[in-house]
């Protein structure tokens, strides 16, 4: 990566999380139109729904999902 990229990345990582998310959203929007993003999300939603309806997805409660996430992070 270029020195400018490295500097910008280092500065961006110093931002609070909510500002980093906002910056990431703006950067993504600058390279992809909203319609492309919406189409990609629509395709992902359709794929996930087909997996659920086809019985290819393990359904768990929210409580179990949170417990798994906490175990994975510890």
Kindly describe this structure:
The chain has helices at residues 3-13, 17-31, 34-53, 62-73. The model has no long low-confidence stretch (mean pLDDT 91). The protein has 4 helices and no strands. The two termini are 32 Å apart. The radius of gyration is 18 Å and the shape is flat. It has 2 domains: 1-31; 33-74, no CATH class. It is mainly alpha-helical and 74 residues long. Helix content is 78%, strand content 0%.
Summarize the structure.
The protein is mainly alpha-helical. About 80% of the residues lie in helices and about 0% in strands. It contains four helices and no strands.
Structural class: mainly alpha
Q: What is the ordering of alpha helices and beta strands?
A: HHHH
Based on Cα principal axes, name the global outline: flat
- What is the total tally of β strands? 0
List the total number of helices: 4
Mean pLDDT: 91
Rg is: 18 Å
User: Main beta sheet, described?
Assistant: none
Helical content stands at over 70%
Distance between the first and last residues' Cα: 32 Å
Spans of at least 5 consecutive residues with low confidence:
none
- Beta-strand share of residues: under 5%
As an assembly, this protein is single chain
Count of spatially separate domains: 2
Supply the key terms:
2 domains, 4 helices, single chain, mainly alpha, 74 residues, flat, 0% strand
Chart the SSEs and their pairings.
Layout: H1 3-13, H2 17-31, H3 34-53, H4 62-73
